[in-house]
């Protein structure tokens, strides 16, 4: 099912003359084989990378750095489109096998389609799946607004899982274009002992050199798709033929752009019933991606408070 | 707070490609960076629905005039204080480009965040307040753009409304900043008068700046080019890891420059081992054919089993990086504690990390000041040139030859503390012949250090025969062993009995004797042991050669006792034989001993006890970073 057909071979045009020759044979994966005469010459001008290739290469680099420099990693699998792309990238980075657990911090309030997806692809992708529950709502900061408080259960669940397994690195699929405080994130983002994010004192990070030494008892968040956009995720999902949860596609004039807990996530009006149509819709829309996430809109700083406390 | 725009960048559904260019806005605090970003989004029709109204409401709630900067200053503390603390990114489109705008803080306190943002940019816009003119952060940011390797810079003179759109004022600022940047080797692509608040010069030239003929900001952004992968340069593939998930042994890394294909003959640096690329592995399709170029994250297998590890660099034969333990770099410093000569740091170069010592500092200045008064250490937010002595050899290129592999970062206590460009590389003294394949230890030096609580070192005891070198060496050996260390005694006479039994006492043979001692000792030191060498080693030149071999691990101790005291001790009976004429070329008699002019420690053994002298050596070793007590100190060094 991961076979690419020739139409999905690239979101942008393949730049070199090689691909324009219609007689060029395609191999599994959509990458054209150069004609034998060119192969024989050895050093041909190399094909440049398109936008998705660049995003992919950078994400793979980040994942490999995390795996090389941290001792006990886990990948946070929220079952959404972003973390599915992330798992795909991890399989590319490590040649088919994700060499660390996929952790699903389960609020117990996801859509049935999400659970079905988890159970199926957790097996098909041969993930070391760990499902961890969240505490009841009573255990969560009562001063938060209702939806944020509900979402904060996930933060608590995450803390439990961290204590239980002793992970020193959590790979999370957040993106800069989703939300303003996430735009300020580092790729390797240190968290305090309590899991908190010190936004006032983020370490410098440049030239793909990452701070990977969390203090004893603290952990790092690693963000391999921080530089992707919502449209990039969809274009890549299409190109690579990555399975998705059908809730993202329009049904009765509505679809989910972002999937969270059932009680605090709303669909948006949309007629996009395929990934192609989603991409066209995104090209024109001025509605933010998380418009359907209630917790983002309660107060000016509700989301920042959640994130400082350790929310994704 | 959803504000960042959905932007399809190059991944448009119809398959068209628009260049994506990343642009950082830098400049002095309060000169209007965030306002310019807000205005650009507004002028290009990129604001999400309801955003403008929301910003007006947020401003009103705080009793402040409307602030564009609220768009980007997402953190509560940023809005409360009206300053940008951390860098952020936002996307919009111009006529021909998808632009990722990076807003960087202008406050000196947050320079690390400015660097974090600017390091990701292809080009930069440097903004200057027309009223205030060029300020210290303007100069500092200009200098850092140069150090970050950003060559495309457009200058924007903002708040022209505050100077009545004066062409003269504009020209004065334009001349000053252009001269400053050109002095750094950066030529501004445009200097543009604007009012970000009112919109003049942002998307169009308004009548108020009718005297200005150049491009507006949007046009200038359209002219900036995305950085290209370095496909034309020589192959550099820094090794990230070796994976053995199945029967394949895959060497993984990202091609930083050049390209590779299966069948290529490669050299693994710094050791200089050669191999051929057997396959280029991938998933779900494998193996891949054809050429793979700069920017790709790849995995390769080799045609032979070699010891290869993270940090090695794969290159093509004939175009390899240099193998070195000495690097000169021009760096910026971000740590609270100034960087000083003698400091032990961790250097990251590509995927290699190595402990290093700062052996020289030059041209340390505050790039924000005009005076350029030099200092001997590099303070926070200052820049300078440093010489680094690395604990292990690395493969490195000068920045001029390769911008990707010619830069490094410096870590202190596990946190990035600075970074900069490799100016020059002192190539290793001897290139290892290609058919010699040294086998590395299975243990890393840090593993041994953690157990022994010392770093590898060469303790070189020099002095007249009978001065007490062997006695002290044995006492030191016992002392270090008692505290759990791994000392190894290399006595000059003992080695002459075996390894060096082909050597006599001519000056040439003595030099060779010292060289072999130094090589053996250095090998032990690199593997974490403390090699204690007791050797007369009378010639300053020979000891200097030994220091070059052992480099930063070398600790020279002059065991000094008056000649008559030495002769009266005569533990080996050499003085007596020499006096009797049966031992020619004996240093104690021929007076050819050259005492060190400079050394780490001088001990007069005629006036102190063995225990006392051993204490002194132990203190020196602790002070110079060989011995440590706390494991946390080790953590800071590795």
Q: What would you say this structure looks like, in words?
A:
The complex is a heterodimer of chains A (312) and B (638). Chain A has 312 residues and is of the alpha/beta class. Chain A has a domain at 51-228 and 297-308: Rossmann fold, CATH 3.40.50. In chain A, 33% of the residues lie in helices and 9% in strands. In chain A, the strands form 2 sheets. Chain A has a 6-stranded mixed beta sheet with strand order 3-2-1-4-6-5, with helices on both faces. Helix content of chain B is 26%, strand content 27%. In chain B, strands 2-3-1-4-5-6 form a 6-stranded mixed beta sheet, sandwiched between helices. A 6-stranded antiparallel β-barrel of chain B has the order 7-8-13-11-10-14. Chain B has a 6-stranded antiparallel β-barrel with strand order 15-18-17-16-19-20. Residues 1-16, 429-436 and 631-638 of chain B have low confidence and may be disordered. At the A-B interface, helix 3, helix 4, helix 7 and helix 8 of A face strand 2, helix 4, strand 7, strand 8 and strand 12 of B.
